[in-house]
Amino acid sequence: MNNDKNKPSWISRLFKQSGAQAITADDKILYGHRYHDSLSHLRSPFNDLFYGAEKVQPECLIPADGHRHSASRLSNNEPGIVQQIETNSLRASNDKVHPVGRSSLESQLTLVRLYDETPDTKTFRFADRTGRIFDYRPGQYITLSLVIDGREYKRSYSLASSPSRPRLLEITVKRVPNGIVSNWLNDNLQIGDEVAVKGPYGKFSCTPNPPPKTLFLAAGSGIVPIMSMLRWLTDTAARADIRLLLSFRSPEDIIYRDELGLMLNRHDNISMDITLTTDQIANYDWSGLTGRINEQMIQQLIPDLPERGVYLCGPDAFMAECKKSLLHLNLPPENLCCESYTVNSPATRTGSACLRSATINPTGNYQVSFAKSGKTVAADGRISLLDLAETSGISIDHECRCGDCGMCMIKCLKGQIEMTEQVEIDQTDREKGWIYSCCSYPGSNIVLDI
Ligand code: FES
After folding, report:
1. Which domains occur in the chain, in start order?
2. CA 211 to ligand 1 center in whole angstroms
3. Which residue minimizes the CA distance to atom 1 of ligand 1?
4. CA of 86 to the centre of ligand 1 (A)
5. FRET pair for 231, CA 20 to 30 Å: which of 104, 205, 366, 450?
6. Distance between alpha carbon 375 and the CA centroid of its chain, in Å?
């Protein structure tokens, strides 16, 4: 039992998230763990305690001003144990559109440790010099702002760390061909350097309702937000039945290999299969699975799939294939939570950022005019308007670059815009010409109000 009367709210929240039951006695709040044994339904053994207790209000991480800020209040009526990702939450009022349910706080963090995970992947551990505590949900992501060669870049990266270790934030970044920010981080960021960070963002998280039976399905860097959730689940001694099915190219590409092995040894509620996709498998001492994850593999390895909450993260092609297989194998759609790190425009969106993918690929030869800047540039329809503006020296406010925060909204005055289907802008705003520039592409000659 723990007495937390005078401790900060994040500790209370951690106890509650871990399934602890609150009891008030002698003017003190005591927390103790009590788990249900039944795994026969998908509601978590945590749920009754979590929702039965006072509603916990998720608070923004990285308080910039020393005060806590409310991000959003948990609903009493969460629709499902695992929710499909919503693409944004925007509230329209007249011509003004405000992001809601998001932090707009910013913090300068210091790199305190660097780890080589694989030959081309590093983990970056950050702390706040003032010792602030980070409060977020495992699986969420943050946005880094960096100035490289005089130009500002903002990129989103999934958190690898767990809020159960609240004084440190970790991201894991893989080098990618032609990647600007991911490669720069790998090559240049040194211990003691500071970076500007905003967040948290995203709903790809197993909290607050971790299902008692979980399947984590990931390929490559898609393991990063999964590791955040795994660390949280193991740190909080969650008694969920956890299966991992992971895909990497070769043994040396297995990110977190040692830590995953340690987790398996120490937690008998976790089991894992890794498949390797290299066609040079004969060059390795590997006796495990080979080939891409497919329907047959899932069926054989996960016979109780429909009972599980599934968290899926990886490149577009992997996601599409897995989604098709999972649904064909009778996984209820409401049990599937997905996030893709494949990026909209290959020239600028790279790395392990957990970003929603574009679902359109318009092409053509168009003229994009920036009315206020007086510039007109050619576009082939394959680069987002945010990227196009940046490469033209025109600045647009933005954070997530994936249709999540709403910061990049601009007005299109003329012409046809193709927006990724994940973007949900209120119909009234659409009719007024508002678009998310990070997820919009020219579908004709267009004029933008910037
Ligand atoms: S919606 Fe966040 S930058 Fe575009």
Report:
1. 106-201 (2.40.30.10), 213-340 (3.40.50.80), 366-448 (3.10.20.30)
2. 30
3. 403
4. 14
5. 104
6. 35
